[in-house]
Task: structure prediction
Amino acid sequence: MRVAVVGATGAVGRDLRRLLEERTFPCDEVVLVASERSAGGVLPFRGRDQVIRALTDRDVFDGVDLALFSAGGSTSREHAPRAVEAGALVVDNSSAWRMDDEVPLVVVEVNPDTVGTPHRPPPKGIIANPNCTTMTAMLPLKALHDAFDLVGFTATSFQAAGGAGQKGIDELAAQIEPLFAAGDLLRSDGRSAAKLVEHHVHEATLAFNVVPLLGAEAADGYTDEELKLVNESRKILGLPDLVVTPTCVRVPVTVGHSIAISATFQRQVTAAAALSRMEGFPGLVVEHVPTPLEFAGRDEVAVGRVRADLFDPHVLNFFVVGDNLLKGAALNTVQIAELLLARGLITAKQR
Ligand code: A2P
Result:
């Protein structure tokens, strides 16, 4: 089995390499791919240095059985079809293909059957990995939907700097010391404090702050990140009329997205009944106070603060956290690859 990792030098790429190693995915050969900037450098894989290849190399996908893409939307849009043409199945972590009707959008614990079968493989040869915030919300929402019939939800996210990749983490890290050193200004003149540092990745200075805009402004004042929560949730849960009210917020956390969710169901719901449905759900753990820091580096999504609504018996309020680079990205990507293998959708080529 020859597996290509596209975006191997990035924040998600690093976890993809580690998970392929740790979960002993049966790849005999790995092809690490990044931009021309990184080509020729080396990264370790299974104890050996692997030379990084440029995505623009014409033969980079030759003999590749499976390609895991995590190098941004425009890169995937342009290059995933090249990998498919070369005979690989693609699992794509970008937003490029998610809403394509011929591309399954898969959370392995939620809608694994949409991945296809050897007789009905994914039509485009591409399987999409959902947005990290949507992914985290899907686990508890699916557990609850199966019991209480979901009508809609209001979600306010608290998204980590790492959601914007390594550059998002670096920008936050560079802001912390200068602002900490200007302690008085943080209290007396925050606007001047914010100007002490630069921001290019996040919409405003993120250290010691909360930034209620992330992603590109899309329609009616919502951002594309917020609309992903609407559209991807509908597709994954197979509920085209799901009513979703999203607000996405960036917070000064390195990795780990959190979401406060208020969900409405057709049936009445109690906190105890909700907890019993969520407790055994695969990939989900119940915590009294789930925090993103304590779930950074962990595979599980954690749900807590589960409360029946004070006024509406059809509404449940809860808080969910998950490592956006793991379950929100690299882990689900590798789990999809494992699913493809288990279902006979990928087999090593005869070479
Ligand atoms: P590179 O390191 O060579 O720029 P992150 O999400 O952490 O920012 O990482 C993005 C990943 O996607 C990196 O591995 C980066 O490689 C890769 N990447 C970004 N743009 C391209 C491109 N045009 N072609 C190939 N790889 C790309």
The chain is about 30% helix and 25% strand. Residues 7-13, 34-35, 37-38, 55, 71-72, 75, 165-167 surround adenosine-2'-5'-diphosphate (CB under 6 Å). The radius of gyration is 21 Å.
